[in-house]
Structures are given as structure tokens and as C-alpha cells.
Amino acid sequence: TRRSSDLQTRFVFGLGVHQIAKLAEAAKLNPYDGTIQLRIAREQANAGHVEEALAAFRRAEAARPQDSAVRDQFLRYLISQQRYEEAFQLTSAWVKREPKDVDLLVDHGLFASTLGHLEVARTSWEQATQLDPSQMNAQLYLAELYQRQNEPKLAIPRFGAYLDRVMKASDEGRPAPNVVIGALLHLAECQAATGELNRALHTYDSAAKIANSAGDARLQSVVATAAAEMQAKRGEFGDAIRLYQQALRADNKTNMADLEAADLMHYAELLREHHLDNMAYACLLRAESILGSNPTAPEFSTIKSGVEDLERHTPATQLRAVQRDPDAALAQALSLPN
Fold this sequence. Notes:
Layout: H1 20-29, H2 34-46, H3 50-63, H4 68-80, H5 84-97, H6 102-114, H7 118-131, H8 136-148, H9 152-168, H10 177-193, H11 197-214, H12 217-233, H13 237-251, H14 257-273, H15 277-291, H16 300-313, H17 316-324, H18 326-334
């Protein structure tokens, strides 16, 4: 759509800095000339003069309050400077004048969501999808917001509408695999939360197919881990084991230590739940070794606490066997039949 990627866009200006003085003189002659003010704004932005650029954009917008092109350029600059509050105020004024501008409603919702005005975002995206049900991004944003607000039943059809548009999109218009997989994983969570477990499993399978087709080991790992967590909650130990092992095989291809350590930690938790403490210990030792002594890693303290807890509560003979040959113990854990 016309502005759907504006929140991730940096505005590029193309005029020379030397023109600022000339434009300022022209502006003195006609301070209400929006075109001159817009050019001044561009020049000041190019020169890195943020406050001066913002002031000129405000004057340009005031001079041409009905001109959406001025508004859009001003919004892009506000985004580039992370001035989301002012961007929100600007779109708030515009949606009152242009309540059927779908792209504007989507952008307004994004600013509202960024600032924590979730009900405003919800209303804005609902209006956008009512006006244009094919608005793919608005359907996704709304689905994620419903899920965030613990309304999975409302989120499910929105995710479905988004994914339907994805399937119909051209190769050029189709979102990146990680975005589509993210939507599928959220959908599966909502389906599981509403008791639609078979549908959730089918959704995980769809996500896995996309990850495999993309050849992205990180995505393959993320999908397998998410599916493993659901199977573990269902009490399907064998399926959870298989999926965690699958995730860890994918991790080996990523060279992402934090991802592998996190998966080993979750796998160890599952093993402990089924009293396989020696295998859990081997997994945690490996995770601790991967992270080294990096206390900033998100999982570091949890892994360290897990190791210490097992060392306090597991018979010393079991631990010594793992400590003597941790690689063999880990291999046993990773080849556990399922």
C-alpha cells in the first residue's frame, strides 16, 4: 500500500545545504508559502538540523493543512527522528478529516500502539479492515492486538484473513518467511488456547513447511520448539522429545549460541519432569558451556540455577557419570527414543 512501510522507512532528502539561506530569504517574503517551507525543512534535515527541520515542517503543514503529500513527508521525518508522539497527534487530526483513508488509519494505529494507546489502535485498525478487508497489514496488527488482549477467538479469523491474503499475494508482494511464520505461530497459540488442538498442530506443520522451504535453520528451530512446547503441555512426551531433538539439530546449523542454549534449557526441563535427571544435567552443562560465563545472556541465570539445583538433589553417582563423559550423556539425551 501507499504508506504501509513508512514506519520502517527513513526519509531521504536531495537538496543542497547551501540553499538554506536563499530559501530563508524567500520565506521572509512569503512566510505562508508551504512549498518554500517544505524545501527549507528538507534542507535543514539534510544538514542535520533537527529542530529547525521540524519547525519548517510544522509551518509547511500549517500553510497547506489539506495537503496529504506535505503530511506524509512530515510523518516520514517524524518517524526518522522517533518523534512518535507528534506523529500520533498529526495523524489524530488527519483521521478526523479523512476517516476513510485506510493507509492513514493503519499508520495512526501503529503510532497509537507504539505509545501504548491500545484501544485507539484497535479502533483504528478495525475501521481500516472494515473499509478494506484486503488490507493485509491491518489484519495482522489487529490479530496480534486481540491476542495480546487475551481474546484468541477474535484473533483467529484475523490471522486467517491475513494468511489468506498472503497465499494470494504475488511473489513480490508476499511478506518474508519469518513474518508469515510468526503469524502462523501466533495463530497456533490462539488455536491451542481455544481448544482447537488439531488445528494448531496443522498450523505448526504449515509453519514448518515454510521454514524448510526457506532453508532457514533458525526458523526451523523456532517452529520445532514452539510445537514441542505445545505437545509438552498436552502431555505428549514422545512428540515433544522428537520436536526438541529436531530443534537442536537445526540449532547446530545456525551457530547461534543463545538459541541452542535456550532450547537445551527447555529440553532439560522436559526431561526433569519425567525424572531423567542425568540427561537433563547433561543438557544444562552443555548449555552452560555454550554461554560461557556471559551473565548478560537471558537464559544464563536460569541455566546456572538449574545446574545447581540438580547438583543438590540428584544422587552424586549419577552426576559423576555425566561429569566423566558429558558428551556421551548428551548424545544419549539427544537420541532418546520417542
